[in-house]
UniProtKB/TrEMBL annotation:
Family according to the record: Belongs to the PEP-utilizing enzyme family.
Compartments, as annotated in UniProt: Cytoplasm
Role played: General (non sugar-specific) component of the phosphoenolpyruvate-dependent sugar phosphotransferase system (sugar PTS). This major carbohydrate active-transport system catalyzes the phosphorylation of incoming sugar substrates concomitantly with their translocation across the cell membrane. Enzyme I transfers the phosphoryl group from phosphoenolpyruvate (PEP) to the phosphoryl carrier protein (HPr).
Name this polypeptide is given: Phosphoenolpyruvate-protein phosphotransferase
Enzyme Commission designation: 2.7.3.9
This protein's UniProt keywords: Cytoplasm, Kinase, Magnesium, Metal-binding, Phosphotransferase system, Sugar transport, Transferase, Transport
Domain PEP-utilising enzyme C-terminal: 11-279
Catalysed transformations (reactions): L-histidyl-[protein] + phosphoenolpyruvate = N(pros)-phospho-L-histidyl-[protein] + pyruvate
Highest taxon in the source lineage: Bacteria
Species this protein is from: Frondihabitans cladoniiphilus
Cofactor(s) the protein needs: Mg(2+)
Length: 314
C-alpha cells in the first residue's frame, strides 16, 4: 500500500480528460539516465551528445561513441530515446569542427551546418548510433539541430536512413523551419521544438548576452505562434511535435504548449513532477483555450496574465 502511494505520482503524463502527453527527459550524459528513470521519465526527448566531443582534440571514433550510446539505450528498454546529432558552434565551439573567428557564431556555421561541412563526423555519429540501436531494445529516434528548411531536412533524413537509422527528424529552432513545417514534415518523421534557440532567433536576441536577456522569454506570443504552426503541421501530417527546450519545464506553459499541439514534453528531470501535476489539472479543451488566450496577447507578460485568467476560470 505504502509503496503504491509512493509511486502514484510516477504515472504517465496525462491531462484531466485522460489525454496522454508523454513526459521525457533531457539528458547530457548516460550517467544521468538512472536518476531520470527514478523521477518517472517515460523516455528521453533530448540526449545532448556534445559531452562526447567537448575537450577532445578530434572527434571520437565509432567504437567509443557506440559504447556511450549503448549505455544510454540500455537504460530505456522499450522506451523512446531521442538523440540529437552533435550541436557544435555558437555557445558550444569545437576546434575540429567550428570556426572560432566567426563574428556572430549564433548566426554562423553551427549545428547541422557545421556537420554538413565535415560530413565524416556526422557519418561516424549516425553509424555508431545505428550500431548501438541494433544491439539494444530502446526505440531510437535521431534528430539534427539548427535546421532551416526542407532541403536541409532531406539531406539529414536521407543520410540517417542510408546509415541505418529508422526514425529521423529535425529540431525546430530556426523560425524558417517552423514557417515551412508542412514541407519539412513530408520528409522528417518528427520535429522537436528547441524553444531556447527558437526564442533567441525569433526575437533576434543572443541567448548568451545578459543585456538582452529579457527577450529570451518563450511566453512571447511570436514564439507561441510558431509553435502553433508546427503543431498544426504535425497534426495534418500525423507526426509528432515534441518540445525539448526549457519552456517545457514551466508547468503552466507546458499546458499551453500542449494546447498548441505539442504531443510530448521533454525537460530536465527535476521538473517532471511539477509538470505532471499541472497537466492533471486541465482538459485538452482547457489547454486549447489557454493557448488561444496566449496567442492573442501582445507580449509575454500579457500572455502569462491572459492564461492565468483563463485557467482560473476553468
Ligand atoms: C533549444 O535550443 O531549445 C535546445 C533544446 O537546444 P540547446 O539548449 O542545447 O541549444
Ligand atoms: Mg538549441
Amino acid at each position: 500500500e505504502r509503496l503504491a502511494a509512493a509511486s502514484a505520482p510516477l504515472t504517465p503524463g496525462t491531462l484531466k480528460d485522460g489525454t496522454l502527453v508523454p513526459l521525457l527527459a533531457n539528458l547530457g550524459s548516460p550517467k544521468d539516465a538512472a536518476a531520470a528513470v527514478e523521477l518517472g521519465a517515460e523516455g528521453v526527448g533530448l540526449f545532448r551528445t556534445e559531452f562526447l566531443f567537448l575537450d577532445a582534440p578530434y572527434a571520437p571514433d565509432v567504437a567509443s561513441q557506440k559504447a556511450s550510446y549503448k549505455e544510454l539505450l540500455e537504460a530505456f528498454p522499450g522506451k523512446k530515446v531521442v538523440v540529437r546529432a552533435l550541436d557544435a558552434g555558437a555557445d558550444k565551439p569545437l576546434p575540429f569542427l567550428t570556426d572560432k573567428n566567426e563574428e556572430n557564431p549564433a548566426l554562423g556555421r553551427r549545428g547541422l551546418r557545421a556537420l554538413r561541412h565535415h560530413e565524416e563526423i556526422l557519418r561516424d555519429q549516425l553509424t555508431a548510433l545505428a550500431q548501438a540501436d541494433a544491439e539494444t531494445e530502446a526505440d531510437l529516434w535521431v534528430m539534427a539541430p539548427m535546421v532551416a528548411d526542407l532541403e536541409e531536412t532531406v539531406y539529414f533524413v536521407d543520410l540517417a536512413r542510408e546509415l541505418g537509422i529508422r526514425t529521423a527528424g529535425v529540431m525546430a529552432e530556426v523560425p524558417s523551419l517552423a514557417l515551412m513545417a508542412d514541407q519539412v514534415l513530408t520528409s522528417a518523421d518528427f520535429v522537436s521544438i528547441g524553444t531556447n534557440d527558437l526564442t533567441q532567433y525569433t526575437l533576434a536576441a543572443d541567448r548568451m548576452l545578459g543585456t538582452v536577456a529579457a527577450y529570451q522569454d518563450p511566453w512571447h506570443p511570436a514564439v507561441l505562434r510558431l509553435v502553433a504552426q508546427l503543431g498544426a503541421a504535425g497534426k495534418a501530417a500525423g507526426k509528432g511535435v515534441g518540445i525539448c527546450g526549457e519552456a517545457a519545464s514551466d508547468p503552466i506553459l507546458a499546458v499551453v504548449l500542449v494546447g498548441l499541439g505539442a504531443t510530448t514534453l521533454s525537460m530536465t528531470p527535476a521538473a517532471l513532477a511539477d509538470v505532471r501535476a499541472e497537466l492533471l489539472g486541465h482538459t485538452l479543451d482547457e489547454a486549447r483555450a489557454m493557448a488561444q488566450a496566449a496567442l492573442a496577447a501582445p507580449s509575454a507578460a500579457a500572455a502569462r496574465a491572459a492564461v492565468a485568467s483563463v485557467s482560473s476560470a476553468s
